[in-house]
């Protein structure tokens, strides 16, 4: 939850914009590795949902053409989820992935130290035109100690109080943190009626389930429209127009030839990978949401609501209405990012101050 809030704050204040692209990329890598850490740890209780959740997720890799079945076998270490899978998931969860995570956190902090933190105004305090004192220090900068040490100690203290309250008094949290089915020991011979991942994976799981054969036709239409716009409106020479048109034809042929299950895996993975490209998708002349047109705020609000709806649908059993809503939500999620180079330029931004206007209160 804290990671999602941290990413959203970076999203609305433009903390991924130049010169902080590397900070954002390392942050997205942390998010990806954190998902792997959570997934591998989820199998360790060896409960019903742990076992069948791992079975479903590992089997997704078998949908990859040519290498899929062998890749799934390599991940499991056996033909079924069993002792070999448990041993390797334990090793990755306890040793390998945490070391990678630790290295990425250090890289994230080093990259941040190099360029400095962003602020809610999105004003560069270290730039060549930024106001500085006689010693060359930014006038709008403040020392990390004692200001941010006290700030962070307070934040960590509040988090630990909430965290401890949940761990000791409400670990199930209504079945959303620890599912009741996971208190039942794993039984390979008894499949639960509804298999769903933990809530923090459910938006991406909804996108996976949204890709049906019918949805493929909608995606093909999107590819055709995107290619047509690129050829008609794009400032491309004849050669590049031909490449775009040919690439669209090849992609459509692949989408028709390969099963929808594979494209569901691609969409689920793409929903995370697309975050890495955010610094180059946003073409807004201003950085912070404070100085963007007001309708940008509503668009970001709809994006968050859409993400929460996808998360809710991911924990619900499949239904025709839920399927349609998740399909619309998936199209909106990707449309938000893929159309960002266009819509982020629209509207008249508000004048950005030359100095930080934020005051502590």
Notes on the structure:
With 361 residues, the protein is mostly helical. The protein is 63% helix and 0% strand. The protein contains 14 helices and no strands. The protein has helices at 2-12, 21-42, 48-60, 68-76, 83-115, 144-169, 202-210, 213-233, 238-257, 260-273, 278-281, 294-314, 320-338, 340-343. The longest helix is centred in the N-terminal third of the chain and has 33 residues, at 83-115. The two termini are 25 Å apart.
* SS class: mainly alpha
Largest sheet: none
Q: Strand percentage, roughly?
A: under 5%
What's the helix count?
14
What percent of residues adopt helix (DSSP H or I)? 55-70%
- The tally of beta strands, per DSSP, is 0
- CA distance, first residue to last residue: 25 Å
Shape assignment: globular
Mean pLDDT: 90
Low-confidence stretches: none
Radius of gyration of CA atoms, rounded to a whole number: 23 Å
Order of helices and strands: HHHHHHHHHHHHHH
Oligomer: single chain
């Amino acid at each position: 939850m804290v990671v999602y809030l941290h990413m959203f704050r970076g999203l609305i204040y433009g903390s991924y914009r130049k010169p902080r692209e590397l900070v954002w990329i390392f942050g997205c890598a942390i998010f990806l590795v954190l998902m792997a850490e959570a997934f591998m740890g989820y199998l360790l209780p060896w409960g019903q949902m742990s076992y069948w959740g791992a079975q479903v997720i590992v089997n997704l890799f078998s949908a990859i053409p040519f290498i899929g079945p062998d890749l799934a076998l390599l991940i499991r270490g056996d033909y079924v989820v069993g002792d070999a899978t448990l041993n390797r998931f334990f090793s990755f969860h306890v040793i390998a992935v945490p070391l990678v995570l630790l290295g990425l956190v250090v890289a994230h902090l080093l990259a941040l130290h190099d360029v400095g933190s962003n602020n809610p105004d999105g004003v560069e305090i270290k730039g060549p035109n930024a106001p500085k004192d006689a010693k060359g220090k930014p006038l709008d900068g403040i020392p990390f100690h004692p200001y941010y040490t006290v700030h962070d100690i307070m934040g960590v203290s509040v988090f630990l109080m909430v965290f401890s309250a949940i761990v000791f008094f409400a670990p199930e949290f209504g079945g959303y943190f620890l599912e009741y089915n996971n208190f039942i020991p794993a039984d390979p011979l008894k499949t639960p009626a509804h298999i769903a991942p933990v809530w923090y994976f459910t938006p991406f799981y909804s996108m996976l389930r949204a890709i049906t054969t019918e949805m493929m036709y909608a995606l093909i239409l999107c590819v055709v429209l995107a290619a047509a716009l690129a050829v008609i409106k794009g400032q491309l020479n004849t050669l590049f127009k031909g490449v775009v048109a040919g690439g669209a034809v090849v992609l459509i042929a692949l989408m028709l030839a390969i099963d929808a299950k594979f494209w569901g895996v691609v969409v689920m993975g793409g929903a995370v990978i697309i975050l890495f490209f955010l610094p180059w998708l946003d073409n807004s002349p201003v950085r912070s949401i404070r100085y963007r047109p007001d309708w940008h705020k509503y668009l970001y609000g709809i994006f968050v609501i859409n993400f929460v709806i996808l998360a809710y649908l991911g924990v619900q059993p499949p239904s025709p209405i839920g399927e349609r809503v998740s399909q619309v939500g998936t199209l909106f999620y990707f449309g938000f990012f893929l159309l960002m180079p266009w819509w982020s330029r629209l509207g008249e931004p508000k004048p950005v101050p030359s100095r930080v206007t934020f005051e502590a209160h």
